[in-house]
Amino acid sequence: MKIYGFFLALVLLLAVFASPAAAEEGNAAVARQAARAADESLNMDERIQAVQTLGRSGDGRAAAPLLEILKDPSEEPGLRACAARALAKLDTARPDVLAALESAYRETAAEDNLRYTVLQTLGDLKALEALALLREALEDPDDTVRFKAVQALGELNDPEAVKLLTGRYEQEPDKTVRAEIVRALGRLRDPALEPFLAGALLRDEDALVRWNAALMLQGYDELGPEAREALAEAARDPSPMVRQAAAGGAP
Amino acid sequence: MKRVCLFIILVLMTSAGTAFSLEKGALLYHSSQGDTLYGRTDALVLPCSPIDAFYGALTSGHAGLYIGGGEIIHAKRDGVVEEPSENFITREDLDKGCRYVGAKLPVNYDDPAVWPPERKDQIIVIAREQLGKDYDFTFHRQKGNGSGDFTCVGLVEYVYEEVGYDVTPGGYYATGAGGKTYAQTYNCAETLFQDWTGINSFTGKVEFSRVQHPLTTVLKIPLGREYEGERYIFFPYSQYRQPSTVAVPTDIPVSGGASGSGGGGSCFIATVSPDRITSVSLLIVLFSLVGFLAGVYRSRRSGNGP
User: Fold this and answer.
1) Subunit contact B128:A147, Cβ cutoff 8 A
2) Cβ neighbours of B56 in A, within 8 Å
3) Where are the beta strands (DSSP E) in chain B?
4) Contact residues, chain A, for B54 at CB < 8 Å
5) Residues A239, A9: Cα–Cα separation, whole Å
6) Residue B303: its pLDDT value, please?
7) Band of the pLDDT at A166, cuts 50, 70, 90?
8) Are B77 and B55 in contact (CB under 8 A)?
9) pLDDT at B17 over 60
10) What per-residue confidence (pLDDT) applies to A251?
11) Do A48 and B263 make contact, defined as CB atoms within 8 angstroms?
12) Which domains does chain A carry?
């Protein structure tokens, strides 16, 4: 009898500890991490980790404290960048998140890496709503901003975004940005874009762009005659990388 | 006239000073605080407490990628960033004793038949595609695969693999020939102040070295990439030692930059949510208490028995 009493006491003890913890787990954890994320007296590493934990929680209640950090221009740009990514992982409060991202991007003193992160995040969110901002970013004097805008536009997989990218290609002076345009469009595997890629493969002045065009065309399951001819012609390209890719070799 | 000559010389000196000869694509390395570097030092010591690890006590060093024009791309606590090369080791990290280890380039990097300019440019394209992505705090992936999360050395390895160059052979080293293996005894809150011995390893042959840590084994909090039931981490010094790259002189500023929110380049830091540690630790304490009570009950019962 005593042994039953002992086990009953044990079960009760466990219940006393476990039940409230389980019931309050979500709320308390979010509140605790939110407090840590906002606590300026803490080491920045601890705050970054709290922000990431909020993002991984998948709990919609984490959005408010994360938005607060993202919106605050006096916060460290790195912490705000982490908040942007965490919000994208939560996939909630989309209009608020997109508005906060856009406003962070447009701040006059926005740090470069925060802007790159905003563009990356807009791409991750496939934020068609941010098309106007991405169009604007395509004209930015910073070539890395243009690069990240191209990457994000590719993620949208939208006819208007494709039009922006093909249009930008014609006037883009930076070869890495042109290469990214080719990669962003090539990743869509759209047969309608084969002529564009074939044109880049044969006519771009820079081997980096031609190489990426060949790599992207090789990623298609099936190619039309124009693309096949372009690849055959690229076998005589002066660049060894282009020739290798045109022949189907991996980089 | 003298003044004009002096001015011309000054202009020439200034312009010469900004023309760096270190090639884009160079892999940069530095040690951690106290100039320690996991794998280079004889003893492989990992911090017991996640709090110690959190503050950079995991002395793994750091790796980054020079992309030309005085800029680097590297993965640090606040994500993958592009910034001036002097931020590779911030002033704060210098004060802690972090020291520059050196720059390396692939063998035959100066051979245009193997490394034509477009292949070198592609390094920048691939690296820039990763800008704004997360740091892999739990070391699940390390090289971005699947999650998009990177550690410092994982990012560098990934970028090179994407241009068709495997800096470090893939693979997992647990123990035995081909590396160093050390037993490390932990005694801290995470082990309930009992001795707990783990075997940490380091190899310069393949990417991943096995790490046995109380966080993973006792508290079941995953730390490292899982492979055949064990956990592994890719350390910067494993990549640094590869014969696929050769040391080259560094003529770019690599230290003294201002500290940002992500600090300098302490590569491996926090690993798990403190919340999870607290709750798991509480559970362990609870079960220990229950075990203790049961023991007391049993001994009293056997003492009173017939």
Assistant:
1) yes
2) 45
3) 27-30, 62-68, 71-76, 79-84, 89-90, 100-106, 172-173, 179-186, 196-203, 208-210, 225-227, 230-234, 245-248, 255-257
4) 43, 45-46, 49
5) 78
6) 52
7) very high
8) no
9) no
10) 73
11) no
12) 22-125 (1.25.10.10)
Residue B304 pLDDT? 42
| Phi-psi sector, A24: left (phi>0), alpha (psi -120 to 50), beta | alpha
Question: To the nearest whole number, what is the mean pLDDT of chain B?
Answer: 80
Split at pLDDT 50, 70, 90, the class of A195 is very high
Asked whether residue B275 carries a pLDDT value surpassing 70, the answer given is no
Q: Do A13 and B290 touch (CB under 8 A)?
A: yes
Neighbours of A152 (CB within 10 A): 28
Asked if B110 contacts B254 with a C-beta cutoff of 8 angstroms, the reply is no
In the chain, the amino acid numbered B38 is Y
| Cβ separation A78–B54 shorter than 8 A | no
Is B134 within 8 Å of A148 when comparing Cβ atoms?
no
CB contact under 8 A, A121 and B132: yes
Q: Model-level pTM? A: 0.84
B275 and A240 within 8 Å at the Cβ level: the answer is no
Residue B263, domain extent = 23-281
CATH of the domain at B36: 3.90.1720.10
B198 occurs within a structural domain: yes
Among A7, A52, A174, which would you mutate to test the B interface (most chain B Cβ atoms within 10 Å of its Cβ)?
Answer: A52
A contacts of B133 (beta carbons < 8 Å): 85, 120
CB contacts of B275 in chain A (<8 Å) are: 29, 32-33, 53
Q: What is the 3-state secondary structure (H, E, C) of B176-208?
A: CCCEEEEEEEECCHHHCCCCEEEEEEEECCCCE
Q: Are B236 and A51 in contact (CB under 8 A)?
A: no
**Amino acid in position B101:** V
B302 within some domain = no
The DSSP bridge partners found for residue B179 are B203
Residue A7: its pLDDT value, please? 56
Q: Has residue B295 got a pLDDT over 90?
A: no
Confidence check: pLDDT of B16 > 80:
no
Q: Does the residue B208 lie in any domain?
A: yes
Asked if B133 has any chain A CB less than 8 Å from its own CB, the reply is yes
Asked if residue B62 belongs to a domain, the reply is: yes
- In chain B, residues 65-94 whose CB comes closer than 8 Å to chain A: 77-79, 81-83
Report how many domains make up chain B: 1
